[in-house]
C-alpha cells in the first residue's frame, strides 16, 4: 500500500507551496487506494508555535483533503535520543562546539545547504563542559555502509551523495530542539510506515543524508517524489514575509479551497506565481 505524508513545521502559516505539497502527497496516496498522513514537525525550539497546528488542519480540510494524523515529533523525542545514542556507540557521531559564523568563516566548500562543515571539532574536540551539537562523520559512515542508491519516482535511481552536505548535525546544541530535521524525519517516516516520501525539490539533497541514516539504523527504504516548487515574481520560494497570502488568509477571505486544490492539480496558478523548473527532472 502507498503511504504518503505531509509534514509541516508550525513555524509560520501555510501558503500555496504547502498546499501544492499536500495535494500532491494526498492524491498520490488516494489514487492508489493508499493512506495520506499528516505529521506535525513541532520540535523547532523557540520557533515552534504548536497553536498553528489547528489552523493547518483547517487548511487541509478547506482544500478538501482527507488524512490520518500520526504522532507529532514532540512526542517522539525519546526515539530520537535512542537513535543518536546508537550512532554514538557505533563511533559515528562527534561533538561540535562551532557556531554558524565560525563555520561560515572557515568553510572552503559550499554544499546544498550552505557552507560544508570544515571538520574543525573532529581535529580538536571541544572541552567536556562546552555546549555541543553532535555531527555525523559521513566518511566513516559511508565506509561502513558502502555505496547506496535511492529512487525518485520521476528522476529514477540516484547514487546517494551524503558527502555533498558534509558532516551534518544530528543532535542540536539547542536543548529545546532535541534532534535535527534529518534524524527526526528519517526515524518518523520509518515509524509511520511511509512508503513514498513526497516533498519539494528543495529537499532533494536531504534525501542523500536520509538514505545513509536508513542504512546505518537498519530502517526500511521508501521511494521519494520531489515535486517542483512554487515561486514568486522574483523567482523566490513563496513566503508569507514576502507578501504571499497564507492559506488561512485565503480561507478567511472566503476563497473556495477545493477549487484552489483543483487549480493546483491542473497547473493553473494565481497571477505572478510560477513553478520552478525541475532541477532533477522531477515533475
Ligand atoms: N517539516 C519540514 C518542512 O516543513 C518537512 C520536510 C519534509 O517533508 O521532509 O519543510
TrEMBL record:
PROSITE patterns: AA_TRNA_LIGASE_I (PS00178). InterPro entries: aa-tRNA-synth_I_CS (IPR001412), Glu/Gln-tRNA-synth (IPR000924), Glu/Gln-tRNA-synth_Ib_cat-dom (IPR020058), GluQ/Sye (IPR049940), Rossmann-like_a/b/a_fold (IPR014729). Its EC number is 6.1.1.-. Residues 2-248 form the Glutamyl/glutaminyl-tRNA synthetase class Ib catalytic domain. Keywords: Aminoacyl-tRNA synthetase, ATP-binding, Ligase, Metal-binding, Nucleotide-binding, Protein biosynthesis, Zinc. GO terms for molecular function: ATP binding; glutamate-tRNA ligase activity. GO terms for biological process: glutamyl-tRNA aminoacylation. The keyword Phosphoprotein does not apply. It is an enzyme of class 6 (ligase). GO terms for cellular component: cytosol. NCBIfam families: PRK05710.1-4. Belongs to the class-I aminoacyl-tRNA synthetase family. This is tRNA glutamyl-Q(34) synthetase GluQRS.
Amino acid at each position: 500500500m502507498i503511504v504518503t505524508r505531509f509534514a509541516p513545521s508550525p513555524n509560520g502559516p501555510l501558503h500555496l507551496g504547502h498546499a501544492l505539497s499536500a495535494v500532491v502527497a494526498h492524491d498520490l496516496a488516494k489514487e492508489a487506494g493508499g493512506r495520506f498522513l499528516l505529521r506535525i514537525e513541532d520540535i523547532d525550539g523557540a520557533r515552534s508555535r504548536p497553536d498553528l497546528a489547528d489552523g493547518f488542519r483547517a487548511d487541509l480540510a478547506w482544500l478538501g483533503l482527507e488524512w490520518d494524523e500520526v504522532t507529532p515529533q514532540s512526542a517522539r523525542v525519546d526515539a530520537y535520543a535512542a537513535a543518536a545514542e546508537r550512532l554514538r556507540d557505533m563511533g559515528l557521531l562527534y561533538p561540535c562546539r562551532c557556531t554558524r559564523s565560525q563555520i561560515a568563516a572557515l568553510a572552503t566548500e559550499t554544499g546544498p545547504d550552505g557552507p560544508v562543515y570544515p571538520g574543525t571539532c573532529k581535529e580538536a574536540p571541544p572541552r567536556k563542559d562546552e555546549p555541543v551539537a553532535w555531527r555525523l562523520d559521513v566518511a566513516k559512515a559511508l565506509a561502513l555502509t558502502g555505496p547506496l542508491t535511492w529512487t525518485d519516482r520521476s528522476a529514477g535511481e540516484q547514487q546517494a551523495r551524503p558527502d555533498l552536505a558534509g558532516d551534518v548535525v544530528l543532535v542540536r546544541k539547542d536543548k529545546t530542539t532535541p534532534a535535527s530535521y534529518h534524524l527526526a524525519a528519517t526515524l518518523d517516516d520509518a515509524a509511520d510506515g511511509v512508503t513514498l516520501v513526497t516533498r519539494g525539490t528543495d529537499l532533494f539533497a536531504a534525501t542523500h543524508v536520509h538514505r545513509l541514516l536508513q542504512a546505518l539504523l537498519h530502517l526500511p527504504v521508501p521511494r521519494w517524489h520531489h515535486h517542483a516548487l512554487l515561486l514568486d515574481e522574483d523567482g523566490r520560494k513563496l513566503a508569507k514575509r514576502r507578501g504571499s497570502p497564507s492559506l488561512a488568509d485565503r480561507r478567511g477571505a472566503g476563497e473556495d479551497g477545493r477549487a484552489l486544490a483543483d487549480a493546483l492539480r491542473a497547473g493553473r496558478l494565481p497571477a505572478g506565481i510560477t513553478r520552478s523548473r525541475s532541477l532533477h527532472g522531477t515533475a
